[in-house]
Amino acid sequence: QSALTQPASVSGSPGQSINISCTGTNSDVGGYNYVSWYQQHPGKAPKIIIYDVTYRPSGVSNRFSGSKSANTASLTISGLQAEDEADYYCSSYAYTSTLVFGTGTKVTVL
Amino acid sequence: QVQLQESGPGLVKPSETLSLTCTVSGYSISSGYYWGWIRQPPGKGLEWIGNIYYSGTTYYNPSLKSRVTISADTSKNQFSLKLISVTAADTAVYYCARVGFVEWSLDYWGQGTLVTASS
Known about the structure:
heterodimer, A: mainly beta, six-stranded mixed sheet, three-stranded antiparallel sheet, 45% strand, B: mainly beta, seven-stranded mixed sheet, four-stranded antiparallel sheet, 11 strands, 50% strand
């Protein structure tokens, strides 16, 4: 069970849009529409921002959106704000009933 | 409002057993979700440990399966983690979370508790 691959860091200026990729295999990301994304601020527990590839939980800003193509899922943050500076993790349900996380991406707002 | 709270020793000696409990309030663990444990070593990423359904069905990370047991106590609305033969590599913040039954998304998390494996 290998971690999903994410870029270590992504940065952008306020108001810009950024994308974070999450690459797996056809045994996890590519095999199921069960990708979630989490935002984690320093010293805090992760918070879910996307589930089932594209769905936002109630209360999550519509500036966050998700998509998937083949074995790669993506998180887009539009209208980047200072409060978006955090670590972001993807996860996917995987074959043989396991859960795998991504390696994590640090988002910096310039 | 669903709330989860981890509890247990913050220091465990190498080769001994790590034991944590997650107390759930605002939702019955018997009501149709999985309940899971996740850990995060200092400065590193998230690692899934395992899930349990209230009936006792469990799923574990293959890399930890030989050392992990997750159990549930519906009378106390709690679930627990035991990790045997700990080493320094098991030092981490341990989180409990509610897990979606189908999609395994983690929608409610505890605040996390740091467990250090050291003599």
